[in-house]
Please model this.
Amino acid sequence: MKEEEKDILEEKQEQPTLKEAMAEQAIEDESPQSNSFTLRKILGGDWLTAEYLRRQIGVILLIAFFAIIYISNRYSCQKDMLEIDRLNAELTDAKYKALSTASELTEKCRESNVLDMLKNNKDSILKIAKQPPFIIYTPDDKPVIIKTDE
Model:
């Protein structure tokens, strides 16, 4: 019985542990990479081995980080451009409204329109002057305007 126990112990010692088996399998999958890159290796994907990716993980993470920054920056710029377009349209509308309001005010302030409003408004005591104003010059050469209404 002792020999059987010895055989079992020897078999257990010969069998690698799970950790050793996984490490061995990971190493078996990786073939040593040659220094020359050929078109066949690039198109075949041989350069995308685990060892190569492990060595370049920093660069890959940096590229991913810059891609995220690029996308977020583009999104914010597009959002700002939409806001600028909306504000420009609002400004154009405000300019047109101000122009039409100024035009209406100019139309209402014309002398002929003011006179028509005074004629239509019977309770107004304002009247149109029938004589032009007199200009009197003083010895100081300062003109004094005197309006006479009768």
